[in-house]
Amino acid sequence: MALDTPGLMGKGRLAAQEGVEMIRIEKVNGKNVWEILRLSVREEQKSFVAGNDTSIIEAYTAITGGGYAFPFGIYDDDTPVGFLMVGYDTDEYWENPPKIARKNYNLWRFMIDERYQHRGYGREAMKLALDFIKTKPCGDAQYCWLSYEPEHAVARNLYRSFGFRETGDMDEEEVIAVLRL
After folding, report:
1. How many of the other CB atoms lie within 10 Å of CB of 21?
2. Cα–Cα distance for residue pair 61/169, rounded to 1 Å
3. Gap between the Cα atoms of 111 and 113, Å rounded
4. Rg (the chain; Cα; Å)
5. Which residues contact 74 (CB under 8 A, 6 or more apart)?
6. Which DSSP state fits 180?
7. Strands 143-148, 105-112: parallel, antiparallel or unpaired by DSSP?
8. Which of the listed residues 45, 104, 166, 181 has the most CB atoms within 10 Å of its CB?
9. Which pLDDT tens digit goes with each residue over 40-90?
10. Which 3 state secondary structure label does DSSP give 140?
C-alpha cells in the first residue's frame, strides 16, 4: 500500500548526479533499516529533527492507520548518508493536522548524517525527494509542505532555495512552508 513507490527506478530507487557523487534514495526495508537507524545529526542539531527510529515508528503508525508514509535512506553509492520521509494527506496519526496537510504531500523528515554534512548531499537529496513527490504516488496535490524550527537557519535557507515559502501558519512550534507543485 503506502510503501509502494511508483515512478522509482529499479528497486525503489531514484538517482541523481550533480556536484556530488551519484546519490540515490532507496525505500527503508528489512535489509537497510539498521544502517539507517545508525545515522544521526550533530548533538546541537538534535532539537531540530526527530531521530530516524522515531520517524520509522511514525511511518509504521501512519501506514497502519490508513495513511501514507514513504521513508527513504539517502545513499552515496552504497554508503548511507541520510534519511528522508515523505507523507501525504492526514490520517489517525495526526491529532491536529495543519490545514495544508489535507490532500497535499509533505516532506515529513529530512536529515543528513553528521559525517556527511556540508558536502552537497542535502541539496541533491532534496531534488530527489521533490522528484519523487512530483510522481504523485498517492494522487494529485497542489502543494508540498514542510515544517521546521524557526531558529534552524540552514534548513530555512535550503528550503527557500527550492521555492518553499513560509505561510505564516505553524505546526505546533514549527514554521510551515509550502511549494506549489
Report:
1. 14
2. 25
3. 6
4. 15
5. 23, 24, 25, 80, 81, 82, 83, 84, 112, 121, 125, 128
6. E
7. parallel
8. 104
9. 999 999 989 999 999 999 999 999 989 999 999 999 999 999 999 999 998
10. coil
Contact yes or no for 73/32 (Cβ under 8 A): yes
Task: Say if residues 74 and 25 touch (Cβ distance below 8 Å).
Answer: yes
Inter-residue long-range contacts of 7-12, CB under 8 Å, 24+ positions, other chains counted: 7/132, 7/135, 7/137, 8/132, 8/135
d(CA 60, CA 68): 9
Task: Cell numbers for 73, please give them.
Answer: 535512506
What does the pLDDT average to over 9-33? 71
Question: In 3-state terms, what secondary structure has residue 128?
Answer: helix
Residue pair 173/149 in contact (Cβ under 8 Å)? The answer is: yes
Q: How confident is the model at residue 15 (pLDDT cuts 50, 70, 90)?
A: low
Question: What does pTM read for this prediction?
Answer: 0.87
Instruction: Using alpha carbons, select from 30, 104, 43 the residue that is nearest to residue 71.
Output: 30
Q: What is the pLDDT of residues 150-170, one digit of tens each?
A: 999 999 999 999 999 999 999
The size of the chain, in residues, is: 181
